[in-house]
């Protein structure tokens, strides 16, 4: 027994000695730092009309098209709805470590309960997961982060989840991104991206099949919290390949490319801030916006190697924010989105027709909000007026015709505790 006790004492002493020696040997090395952040969210949401949304109404898009009873003609989907949610509650970790290649190295991982698809709602998903190397005038980001079209320097600060999609682009994608700042007032961004769960409508693997990245170039002028304006241009390629419909197999080796264009701007004067954004392009559905693509009408009889055409769309918004004091803030958002049809004739009746809201000629939203915050707690009230002009039919260029307007009034009460 004495021998056992002696062995344990020697072993423990040796372990303490080794731990102390290791700690002393690392005193001169830069230490890693880890910090946690996030918030707990509560929302109560009232809608006056059934709408197009996902995750129990958390990500709201626009009012649903009217559905009428075939005999009585009664409008069937104007019934009010109420929901309470906490699934956007968020947890993240920031990491900083020793310099590498002369650059400061940081990392971030962030998650919430929004999930990646409707059937997985309330489950965890990755929002951001990235590493960043920061030099004096340049930085290299690798991992999942905001798409440049989102523009984290200029985006709506609305209370409703989703940063005002579909009026503002919403997309986080795995990417490699270079930011170059030749001066304090200029920044150039170049990014190559592969769409993750924010993919285009249609076959989910269409971008992967193309074996080509989404390429984006962005310029910032001003590049400060008080003034920033710039443009974004980009291009992506898709190869949908396969579509199965009622045991019929359609397959095409054709590619389809799509461009996106954008202007953004922000101006802050003391307690007042004004910002705006205009986006235009082909098939912008990967940004949770109106758009899509389909088979050319000239190839409607083809089941193999048919060609495609894109749906054009545009979206714009403006936001005014005013801070009364340290506790009270007011904001007003107004947005418009339109599906513009195609430059080519599209087969809108066949199985090769992928779109989000292509039958919406115009969608509008305006939403005032009042926010009270104190320390780590925030309470907010937001009203959203949403309308959509739906086309009952398409012309040959997939432009909607014969419009009917639907309206939804949404009231959102929110509470958030941040840490």
Summarize it.
The protein has helices at about 1-25, 205-210, and strands spanning about 35-45, 50-55, 60-65, 80-85, 90-100, 105-110, 125-135, 140-145, 170-185, 185-195, 215-220, 225-240, 240-245, 250, 255-270, 270-280, 290-295, 310-325, 330-340, 355, 360-375, 375-395, 400-419.
Mean pLDDT: 92
Q: Taking Cα atoms only, what radius of gyration do you get, to the nearest Å?
A: 26 Å
Number of strands: 23
User: Which regions are unreliable across 5 or more consecutive residues at pLDDT < 50?
Assistant: 1-25
Distance between the termini: 52 Å
Structural class: mainly beta
User: Helix coverage percent of residues?
Assistant: under 10%
Q: Given the C-alpha coordinates, what overall shape results? A: globular
Report the portion of residues in β strands. over 45%
Largest sheet properties: 16 strands, antiparallel, barrel
Counted by DSSP, the helix tally is 2
Strand order, sheet with most strands: 1-5-6-7-8-9-10-11-12-15-16-18-19-21-22-23
Order of helices and strands: HEEEEEEEEEEHEEEEEEEEEEEEE
